[in-house]
Amino acid sequence: MATNLTLEPAELPADAVEVGRIADAWGIKGWFKVLPHSSNPEALFSAKSWYLQPSERGAKTFSGTVLLPIRQAKDHSDTVVAWAQGIDDRNGAEALRGARIFVPRSSFPSTATDEYYWVDLIGLAVVNREGLALGSVRELLSTGPQTVLVIEYEEGGKVQERMIPFVANFVDKVELPEKRITVDWQPDY
User: Fold this and answer.
1) CATH code 2.40.30.60 for 8-107
2) Where are the beta strands (DSSP E) in the chain?
3) For residues 164 and 185, what is the distance between their CA atoms, to the nearest angstrom?
4) Contact 69, 7 (CB under 8 A)
5) Residues 5 and 89: beta-carbon distance below 8 Å
6) Max CA distance (Å), the chain
7) Domain range summary for the chain, segments of one domain joined by +
8) Which residue stretches of 69-141 are H helix?
9) Pairing relation of β-strands 100-104 and 49-53?
10) pLDDT score at 2
11) Pick from 160, 153, 93: nearest CA to 126
């Protein structure tokens, strides 16, 4: 099952964000299934080209970073399917299996007021209304009805974590340029 997959080598942009990975071929005409890292994979649909890196595990059909011009990406049932230039049959699509997909943060669609991409919140400092530092955002968790900020801080020489619901009742403001989130929260909650 040889395939002559030709992918253009590329530099990963400085603002690249990993947004998913290629799961498998889909059909016989070069389409492939994508497993997005987000439940709302708008970045996959808005980017005209994706940057791929091989999977950390398994067979590698390419190395380094490559640029994949996307012809079409769309929702299909509970997954995303895509079709790229130069990938015209099932063998070509199978050769991409496991590849990690990156897109530049600058190509993400604009957000509405009070909407944020999780990737933009990671690492922000969290302070309460009194200006007391509560830590920095390590990750966000979706708990179903709401999203929770997982805040990491150090106390007594040990790394601790606290969780704050990312809802208007507790989050006063998000200041991306200042890399800060102000919350109505006390350290002993």
Assistant:
1) yes
2) 8-9, 16-25, 32-36, 49-53, 66-76, 79-84, 100-104, 125-128, 133-142, 147-155, 158-165, 171-175, 180-183
3) 8
4) no
5) no
6) 64
7) 8-107, 118-183
8) 90-94, 118-121
9) antiparallel
10) 42
11) 153
State the amino acid at position 36 in one-letter form: P
Q: How far apart are CA 177 and CA 161, in angstroms?
A: 24
Q: What is the pLDDT along the chain (189 residues), one digit of tens a residue?
A: 444 567 889 999 999 999 999 999 999 999 999 999 887 888 899 999 999 999 888 777 888 999 999 999 999 887 899 999 999 999 999 999 999 999 999 888 888 888 888 888 999 999 999 999 999 999 988 887 888 999 999 999 999 999 999 999 999 999 999 999 999 999 988
Tokens of 18: 């990993």
Residue with tokens 């302070």: 127
Structure tokens at 139: 């990750």
Token pair of 86, please?
A: 């130069």
Whole-prediction pTM: 0.75
Superfamily of domain 118-183, CATH level 4: PRC-barrel domain (2.30.30.240)
**Residue 12 to residues 66, 115, 141: CA-CA distances in angstroms?**
8, 26, 27
